[in-house]
Amino acid sequence: EAQLKIDGLQKIYDNKVQVLNDINLEIEKNEFLVLVGPSGCGKSTLLRTIAGLETVTQGKISIAGREVTKLAPADRNIAMVFQDYALYPHMSVRDNLAFGLKMRKRPKDEIESEIMRAAKILDIEHLLDRKPSQLSGGQRQRVAIGRAIVRRASLFLFDEPLSNLDAKLRTQTRIELADLHQKIGATSVYVTHDQVEAMTLADRIVVLDGGDIQQIGSPMELYDRP
Ligand code: ADP
Ligand code: ADP
Asked: What ipTM does this complex have?
């Protein structure tokens, strides 16, 4: 069964701007799906409806076999790495990672072992006692991804997570992300306008334009045609 299933999704803003016409999509467990398309084509809108940050005008969204169309973001078992999911500046890296689990009143030893698991995967063990202001852009990005990892979510959602990084860090973090995907095998939807990111990260690429899916296929199928 699909880990994410989208049926007949339509989104019209304020009863006038139709952004998504009729999106149908299934993502398999552990699949990394990259969403591309021209600016303003609705990539962010699609991601935000999956996250529950936007209501849908019509259609259904299911995650891990459960319909979530009307559920709040916190009840969807998703992990987001969005640009607006900033780190808490007054908290250490450790506390930033622990925050969501503390809110959920998880036992202390479980929180500690989740933090160590994420820190190890991301190679940020030596940064746990620092504040965000004492980190580089790339390190902050890794902590933001770490906050998603500790959630053990059914679905990871990324909205241009590398776009604020300079070229060098962008490449490095992209390679880390690909590696991470291998290690934790998380089902992911990743929005980008960067073709290199799409080619290197995607199992499948979805090209969105004019409110519909124009193309869908592996990077080879989409970009390597003679
Ligand atoms: P992309 O992520 O592909 O750049 P968006 O999903 O951000 O595209 O936007 C798609 C379209 O929806 C754009 O025309 C944008 O202006 C419009 N839009 C986005 N958010 C809103 C909103 N809250 N209210 C009205 N229109 C919006
Ligand atoms: P939940 O209610 O799903 O257990 P938490 O208690 O872990 O959520 O987090 C508290 C709030 O912060 C929730 O509303 C959750 O949606 C949000 N949150 C924090 N970090 C993330 C993230 N990386 N991805 C998604 N939601 C997050």
From this structure: 0.78
